[in-house]
Amino acid sequence: MDRILLIEDDLDLSEMLVEYLVSENFDVIPVYDGEQAKVELSNTFDLILLDLMLPRTSGIDVLKFIRQHTFLPVIILTAKSSEQDKTIGFNLGADDYMVKPFSLIELSARIRAQLRRSQKYSTIKQSDIVKVLTYKDLSIDFTSFSVKKDKEKIALTKKEFEILTLLVSNQGTVFSKARMYELVWKETYYGEENIINVSINRLRKKLSKNSQDEYIKTLWGIGYTMEEITK
C-alpha cells in the first residue's frame, strides 16, 4: 500500500482527504503545520501532498526542505492560482500543482500517475544506469542526485537537475521549449514559456557566474542545447 504524507492545516479538508484517499487504498499520514512535516519526513513515504499556506513554517520552506532530503513526488494543493505561484512551486521542485477547490477523483488520478513514474524509475536495474555523467568540469551523480563543479557541490532543484541531465545526456540535440516541458514536467505544453525561461536562467546562474552560455546554449527561436564534446 502506497504511503502518503498529507501536509494540510485545514482540519476539515484534511479529514475529508484522508477519508477519501484511504477509501482509494492509500495509507495517509496527516500533519497540520510545517514543523510537524519536517519531523514526519524522517519516516518512509511514497508521495507528499503539500499545502502552501501553513502555520509556523510556510509550504515553500517545507518544499525547499523536502528537496534537500528526498526526490519523492510532491503535489502542491493550494488556493494560490497565479502563474507566478505555479512557477515558484515548479522551480522549487514540485511535480504537480492543483488549485483548490479540486476534484477528489482527479487528485487520485494524479497521485497514481506520479507514483507510476516514481516506481518505474526506482525499478530500473542499477546496472543499467550510468551512475555518473560528466560534462566539462561538471559531474552529475545519479546515486545521490547531486551535481558538482570542480568537486564543489551545486544545490539544484529537482527540475533543474532533470533539465541538466536531459541536456548532458543528449549533447548536440536541440530541445524546443515545448519538448523540454513535456520531457521534464511530463505534461502537455500549452505555452508555459515563463516556467522554462525561469528554470533555465536559474540553472545557468548556478552553473556559472561568468557566462550565461558557458554550458547551456540558446538557439533563438529554436530551443536549448549543450554542445557535444568530442573525446
UniProtKB/TrEMBL annotation:
One of its GO terms (molecular function) is transcription cis-regulatory region binding. PROSITE patterns: OMPR_PHOB (PS51755), RESPONSE_REGULATORY (PS50110). InterPro entries: CheY-like_superfamily, OmpR/PhoB-type_DNA-bd, Sig_transdc_resp-reg_C-effctor, Sig_transdc_resp-reg_receiver, WalR-like, WH-like_DNA-bd_sf. Residues 3-115 form the Response regulatory domain. The modification 4-aspartylphosphate is found at residue 51. It comes from the Bacteria. It holds the Pfam family Response_reg. GO terms for cellular component: cytosol; protein-DNA complex. Keywords: Activator, DNA-binding, Phosphoprotein, Transcription, Transcription regulation, Two-component regulatory system. This is DNA-binding response regulator. It comes from Enterococcus phoeniculicola ATCC BAA-412.
